[in-house]
Amino acid sequence: MSSTMPIYQIYAVKYAGPFIRPMAKVIWNTDWEKEIHINYYLWVVKGNGEIVVIDGGMTPLLAQNMKLEGYVSPVEVLKRIGIEVSQIKRLIITHMNFDHINGVELFPNATFYVQEKEFNFWVKDPIAKKPPFLMMADPVGNEHLAKLEGTKRLILLDGDQEILPGMEVLLAPGHTPGLQVVAVHTAKGKAIIGSDCAHIFANYEKEIPSCFINDMVAWMRTYEKIKSKVSSLDLLFPGHDMKMWTDYPKVAEDITLLA
Ligand SMILES: [Zn+2]
Q1: DSSP code of 241?
Q2: What is the pLDDT of residues 141-168, one digit of tens each?
Q3: How far is the CA of 200 from the centre of ligand 1 (A)?
Q4: Distance from the CA of 199 to the center of ligand 1, in angstroms?
Q5: Of the CATH numbers 3.60.15.10, 2.70.70.10, 3.40.1360.10, 3.40.1280.10, which one belongs to the domain with range 9-164+240-257?
Q6: Residues 53-67: tens digit of each pLDDT
Q7: Ligand 1 centroid to 5 CA: how many Å?
Q8: Which residues crowd ion ligand 1, with CB under 5 Å?
């Protein structure tokens, strides 16, 4: 890394949870009799005068409809570290599942970065209307993004791409057809915000994804790829692990500094 490379901080922002889930959902086909707690998160990358939000969380309306426990609107949680949603200019969407895109409408001035493959699947592919995909889809978020197609506020990416110096997205399919992870240069080295590429750290440790898997073979190749890019495995962050809320320095209620 060059010495002029900007250094960023990564924050995990819990906006809902904890929830209890069967272990077999979180670690594919494993420990059917056990249960585990998870949270819902979005992430903030800050540094070099930039603030980039990773994923949009969920609106109060959907949270209310789902009776989501421990929910606080992303608008309110982000205020705890002095961020107004209206000031956010860049929001990277890792993938288009409901808990990651429903809240994009809360960011009125953001340009959204999503893989074209992911966008085309959820918005245009008839297969995305089949029951297993509908369980994870979000018609509201899909429509919000679809309306922005062709405008400056939606950037459809084709594979790995630098977003800012020291910050790039990596195409990482498996969980969904066009999931992307975000590789960030931090004081500890290159960290990767993996989102739901894995639900918890143990998915990476065991090399078994969650049960929400669109393509297991693609997932294994993705894991090899991102493992080769991250400075160390403890800098590869999953999408829903409780540890991101409990095991890192707390900077405000529900917000921790990951790296
Ligand atoms: Zn998720």
Answers
A1: B
A2: 999 999 999 999 999 999 999 999 999 9
A3: 11
A4: 7
A5: 3.60.15.10
A6: 999 999 999 999 999
A7: 31
A8: 99, 196, 239
